[in-house]
Amino acid sequence: MNIPSVIYNSPPRSTSPIHRFIPHSPTCPLLPSTTPPASPPYLFTTDHRQRVLTQLRSKATGLEKYIYLNGLKDREPNLFYEILLGNLLEIVPILYTPTVGDACSNYSHIWRRPEGLYVTIENKGHIKEVLRSWPAAQASRIAVVTDGSRILGLGDLGANGLPISIGKLDLYIAGAGIKPTTTLPICLDLGTNTQKFHEDPLYLGIRRKRPDTEEMDEFMHEFMEAMREVFPQLLVQFEDFSTDNAFRYLDLFRNQYRCFNDDIQGTGSVVLSGFLNAARLSAAAAGTPLTEQRILFFGAGSAGIGVAKQLLSFFTLQGLSVEEARSRIWTVDSKGLITADRKGLQEHKKFFARTDYQGPPLTKLEDVIKYVKPTALLGLSTVRNAFSEEIVRLMASLNTRPIIFPLSNPVSLCEVDFEDALKWTNGSVIFASGSPYKVTEFNGKRYEPGQGNNMYIFPGIGLGTILSKANHVTDSMVEQAAIALAGSLNADEQAAGLVYPRLVRIRDISAQIALAVIRAAQKDNVDENSLFRNLSDDALLEYIRAKQWQPTTSHLPRL
């Protein structure tokens, strides 16, 4: 039997990046049973992207959709990223918060194939060899590294934390155009203190308690030095380390290696950006200067204190000193208002601990609000519904337009829902959350919620750092990223009173942020790519956009 040669004009699937299909022909003979299956003859006349979306939307739960998209990325990565870019608002919440929390919690049970790199505590002493096993070592430009010890608000998930690194890198690819083959998801499997995982027969990680500080420090120093040697051009983003370790390793490594912590610096930067725009709206409504903003934080973990430190920049940008700025920020944890005389106060909480309060301990948030009279209430507590009706109405009674940012992820841990915040403030609230909420109608008016999504910031910081070849990520680079984001709203978004631009413009936003990051790196003299210094802003922005990776696909499934 003569089989048309077109059937065999590409190697088998395992070695071929391109897969050809049999064109429709009435004379084409039937294939023997040993031949790989062909595509349906009229597949070319259909829109396979729409087929994929229909299949995705048929799934009943977010976790099922996550698993489906994971399989699509394995089978047809270009189509996966094209679908992602074309449907950001629908798919980002599946790949990242809130659904990625479910994926992490269940990862040992839904695992299907290797997706990233595990480095275990047992690898101590030869971490370099483990890193060299990654097939794209020289091409790697960015790694997201977690130890699984504080995944979102879900606690210590151990080796189940890898999807957080995978999801974050998908957002780098979608948001900034980082090339997929240059990304490296890493989970440091150092054990877990969550007993149910030790008892789970399907748990993928090492079954031991987490190391003490000395053992962990030894591991981290070896890991970071090995990363620099094996991946000399790599940017490391730390993700979801426990609060104390998040601050500890950022402080230890930020001036030695090309790294940053998104929970601390990224969250702080994106909130600073939203707050710059929110404060302008609030101050204009009240007829007060921006310097009179008073910010109360509910939640004093790594994210809360990191954001608070970043918001010092809001006041220093208005001409205040750091001490004056610090006096306008209050922090509250589970024990109440944080004061310097509290016994056993954790180190990271001391910076904002108040020395000017002499009364009895203020343990209730409502009492703290009555004392502070804040213009802005920010939640990073992971306490669901912490901003009760009484709290929100109290904020509205103190402010013409109260700023309320419930920033905890996922939605199940959010301090207040958008619809409630609108109702309890009669529509006056300036709102931004950590998780997505839908557009809501209230009293016949359409309200569009802000989302303080780190996706606005970290892709641009990553892209700017990579292109400039900055040897460190400086405070100025992070601050300028926030300012660039705040200034990226177009006329329509400003007219709608938004505090963040619409996410569908993320590629353009990330390019603008990358430009600001590169210029800040140059000013701080940490850039190693000196060629950019000779380009105008317009020319550099054009270059950045040209470097953003775009998926290419035939829209046909791979055989």
From TrEMBL:
Family annotation (PROSITE patterns): MALIC_ENZYMES
Superkingdom of this protein's organism: Eukaryota
UniProt remark on cofactor binding: Divalent metal cations. Prefers magnesium or manganese.
GO terms for biological process, alphabetical: malate metabolic process
Domain Malic enzyme N-terminal: 73-254
SUPFAM superfamilies: Aminoacid dehydrogenase-like, N-terminal domain (SSF53223), NAD(P)-binding Rossmann-fold domains (SSF51735)
Gene Ontology CC terms, in alphabetical order: mitochondrion
Organism classification: Eukaryota, Fungi, Dikarya, Basidiomycota, Agaricomycotina
Active-site annotation: 96 (proton donor), 168 (proton acceptor)
Designated name of the protein: Malic enzyme
Family (UniProt): Belongs to the malic enzymes family.
Keyword Oxidoreductase appears in the UniProt entry: yes
Cofactors demanded by this protein: Mn(2+); Mg(2+)
A GO molecular function held by the record: NAD binding
Species annotation: Candolleomyces eurysporus
UniProt domain Malic enzyme NAD-binding: residue ranges: 264-522
Residues involved in (S)-malate binding: 150, 409, 453
UniProt keyword terms in alphabetical order: Metal-binding, Oxidoreductase
Protein residues bound to a divalent metal cation: 239-240, 263
